[in-house]
Amino acid sequence: MMQQIDMSSPEFLEEMEKTKKFTDKVCESQGWVYSINEDVNEGVTLGLARHRLLFGKRFCPCFMVEPDESKPGKFKSSDNRICPCKPAIEKEIPETGICHCQIFCTPEHREAQIKEKEAELLAKEELKKVSKEESK
Ligand code: SF4
User: Fold this and answer.
1) Nearest CA residue ID for atom 8, ligand 1
2) pLDDT at 4
3) What is the pTM of this model?
4) 80 and 86 in contact (C-beta within 8 Å)?
């Protein structure tokens, strides 16, 4: 069962602030940027803050965290993912431009996301125009 945390508690809000600074630093040090989906970014940041409070480390929010049997009282991520994780640094970002959780990406990937979004909006506009024409 998911352990509950009061997300409006001062403790959690303070951890959120620290986590935002942390993700800013990750971007800076790795040469990454945030993906354009702000809801996802917010969710991942919340998840990282939550894991830090519950388990003492910023385990990836997209992977299970479980007790580490070799170290009583400690935890481990099912894919050994502590942010910024090795698979993102070594594989996901170099190969696909974005990490598994979809918060960090390359500047080029972000540019491509922006273009894709613009194209989507344009297509929607066109569709609206066509259906307006048809309903005349
Ligand atoms: S996939 Fe890796 S880099 Fe991305 S948020 Fe999760 S732990 Fe961090």
Assistant:
1) 83
2) 81
3) 0.90
4) yes
Q: Where are the domains of the chain?
A: 10-107
- Spacing, Cα 128 to ligand 1 middle (Å): 38
d(CA 77, CA 116): 33
For residue 99, how far is its CA from the centre of ligand 1 (angstroms)? 6
Q: Quote the CA–CA distance of 34 and 17 in Å, as a whole number.
A: 16
In this structure, the residue with its CA closest to atom 3 of ligand 1 is 84
Query: Which tokens in the block code for residue 25?
Result: 């630093």
Residue 70's Cα: distance from chain center in Å?
29
| Band of residue 133 on the pLDDT scale cut at 50, 70, 90 | confident
Mean pLDDT of 7-29: 97
CATH topology classification for 10-107: Ferredoxin Thioredoxin Reductase (3.90.460)
Contact 34, 27 (CB under 8 A): yes
